[in-house]
Amino acid sequence: MTENEFTGKVVIVTGGGSGIGAATAHRFAAAGATVVIIGRTRAKLDKVVSEAPRGSTVIARVGDVSAQEEITGLVDAVAQEHGRLDTLVNNAATCEPLGTIADLDAAGWRHVMATDVDGVFFASKAALPHLRAVGGSIVNVGSASGLGGDWGLAAYDAAKGAVTNLTNAMALDHGAEGVRVNAVHPSMISTDMVAGFLHSDEIVAAVLNRVPMRRFGEPAETASVITFLASSAASFVNGAHIRVDGGLGASNGNPHIA
Q: What start and end residues bound the annotated signal peptide (predicted)?
């Protein structure tokens, strides 16, 4: 990817107020893109804007991806205001409430599905006409939890599993239209979501024992894969799923016993 790869391009990043979304917005902006970040909390979005690379363009828009009319209006407004839309990054997600299906009620289940699955559907549907016009792309932020299960994360695992196969379906359906659709699947990235699970040094040590690189990843390390998938360097990459997990997914599930 060249230094000015995205000059003149317009990118939307949902869930852009922190973590992977914020890092992705900054990386696209540093490479010349006009980046619009969408999220539900104005203060978090404004902080990402204030920390953007010097001379770059990052714009905050408050919106909820789970509300179809709202996200459709936002996506259309971005394309109209800037004359195009080149990339959509579907990053907005929640893992809460936690629990097994025995623990969850219908409202909790729907809350996760509304953000993690409906949000991808609504934003992608709104973006597609604009992406077709320029030969753009979609990058879905899945999760290792969408490639294999976790204890106590029934709704999140189901939602990210849906994003995984929705990525496949979209890549098949829209590749001939010139729109590429790919996914990254992070795990053990230093974000607020991961931090919520790490209650003690013992848990942290147990987690790191399963990661071959013996450390947590940084949001910027996922962002670099996202921008690669959106770049001209990935022009024949469609329907790809890239783990960003320090090698966690290379294991067959057995503990470290050698």
A: none
